[in-house]
Amino acid sequence: MHVNAPLVDISADFDTGNIQLLDGSDPSNIRLAILPDSCSAHFQWFHFRAEGLEVGRRHGFVITNAGQSSYPSAWQGYNTAASYDGVQWFRVPTEYDGQALRFNVTAEASGISFAYFEPYREARHFALIERARNLPGVQEIACGKSLQGRDIPLFRAGEGTAGKRKVWLIAQQHPGEHMAEWFMEGVIEALEQHQPWMEALLQQAELYLVLNMNPDGAFHGHLRTNAAGKDLNRAWQDSTPAQTPEVHFVRDHMALHGVDLFIDAHGDEEIPHVFTAACEGNPGYTPRLAALETAFRDALCQQTPDFQQVHGYTRDAPGQANMRLACNAVGQRFDCLAMTLEMPFKDHLDAPEPRAEWSGARSARLAQDLLKVVAGLVPRLR
Ligand code: GEM
Ligand code: ZN
Question: How far apart are CA 87 and CA 54, in angstroms?
């Protein structure tokens, strides 16, 4: 006698949530679809909770519209992030047939979460802001507002004294790239630990930090845009308070304080490696900047196996960079070392960790390694 399994409850009505339930009648074939960003066709980020699973029973999930996502080829070789408790995340084997994305789990508990990447939840974001606010030597020097009125604090580690180099780190312009705020958590941890190398860095530089550039998009489970459907990483020439206040706020404060080194933390859907993109296509690119980029990349390769220089974006031809991007706009405007840091949604195949692949913890660890490299590079920035 076939006993109907209890229906599995699928929910995404929480911060960073994104899924639409199409058909939950068969627990071995729960059919789902990812919803697009609010005012944009972009979609790829998903995060949902399944409750009412039968422990020991195999449950199957199908994301039926994966083939129409923003980066469909990115699903090749991708494994879904999963967690029973929302804290410990692991990957589940995932199949992509060119249209649908499929993953199964033999339930070890009655509830499980699935996401495109280990989510950086709003509660943790607020806690990180409080950790920064309570850090000795760190001030919240300004607070911008997102389009929907969420705070965007600008923190500075250092007193703003003349003569110190200004190192800016921003994150998650693209809200679905949650590894970016995990990276910023690593920056805050490094400041909390008062390691000698950090003290040496702060003797010669100040850190200007934006933990999450796009809190609206992160809250709504967006992949790429803010609440107005704008890609913030295309707004660095013509940001406006009405459509892209998040970028407008940071650009204003960069003009006020100056920039000697800029890191823009992102995630990449397709390339299973950690890498950087820089300013080789800028009209103002010079041998000095080229040498700094090489020194930075070589030093980070020496510092950690979680970085490499073989794989990455195609280099821009001379004078052909898209100057609407933060890295290129800031590098040009301030004639400084400026880089986009890309962390993978998959694994960093130069140092694979099959259980969780690329993760929040590895993103945070990368930040510590990157700051150690920055500490060694500060004397050369100007
Ligand atoms: C990327 S940055 C793209 C940089 N490309 C080159 N060739 N330098 C973006 O905004 O599209 C960052 C990201 O989305 O993660
Ligand atoms: Zn991005």
Answer: 21
Q: How confident is the model at residue 7 (pLDDT cuts 50, 70, 90)?
A: confident
For a mutational test of ligand 1's pocket, the pick from 174, 236, 276, i.e. the residue with the most ligand atoms closer than 8 A to its C-beta, is: 174
All structural domains of the chain, each given as residue ranges with its CATH number in brackets, are: 9-115 (2.60.40.3120), 122-380 (3.40.630.10)
- Residue 6: per-residue pLDDT: 65
Model confidence, pTM: 0.98
* Cα separation values, 347 from 117, 246, 273, 356, Å: 11, 30, 7, 8
Query: Which among 266, 327, 341, 345 is the best mutation to test ligand 1's pocket, defined by most ligand atoms within 8 Å of the CB?
Result: 266
How many Å lie between the centroid of ligand 2 and the Cα of residue 343?
A: 9
* Adjacent-strand bridge partners of 265: 171, 341
225: which 2 tokens? 């845009």
Could you read off the pLDDT of 190-199 as tens digits, one per residue? 999 999 999 9
Beta strands in 192-242 (DSSP E): 205-210
Ligand 1 atom closest to residue 281's alpha carbon, by position in its atom list: 8
Tell me how far apart the alpha carbons of residues 264 and 218 are, in angstroms, rounded to a whole number.
Answer: 17
Ligand 1 atom with the shortest distance to the CA of 224: 14
